[in-house]
Each structure stands twice: as C-alpha cells, then as structure tokens.
User: Fold DUF1315 family protein from Alteromonas portus.
Amino acid sequence: MNIEALLASMTPEIYERLRQAVETGKWPDGTPLNEDQKASSMQAVMLYQAKIEKSSEHMTVGESGEIVHKSKADFKRSLRDEQDDKNTIARFKQDDI
Assistant:
C-alpha cells in the first residue's frame, strides 16, 4: 500500500487506536503487539502526525520526515494559544451587546 492510500484510509479513530497500541504495546482488546506490528503501527502513527495532524507537540515528525523540536518558548506559546481557544465560549465587543 502506498503512503497516500494509507493516509486517505486512516480515520482519526484508527490513528488514536494505533497510537494507543504503540504507547501501551497492546491492542485495545489486550492482545500484545508483536515486533512487526509495533514497527508498522509506529510508522503509520508518525506518518499521520506528519502529514495529517501537523501536531503542536514539543517533538514531532515534520512533513518531510525530519524530527522537529520546538523551543521551550514556542511550545509554551502553542499551549497557551490552544488553551485560549478551548476555554473561549464566545467573544463580544462592547458594542455588540
């Protein structure tokens, strides 16, 4: 399967299951991953993070396959921006009300 076909068929739910399997070493039903499954799953997770998710994590895989390290200031800024977006319900100007 080529990379584009793999990414096109991978839903966010599949990505989360693969990521969890790689992190825990087990499938959701508790069955352990063998080494080939772990390697394949890790590659799929890294591809998804690089091409689809474009993660704001401190260290990720960039679109061209390189490891991307954010500076501490950049990482803090991205977390602060994410929190502001998540905590904001609505914004109004004084004249809007």
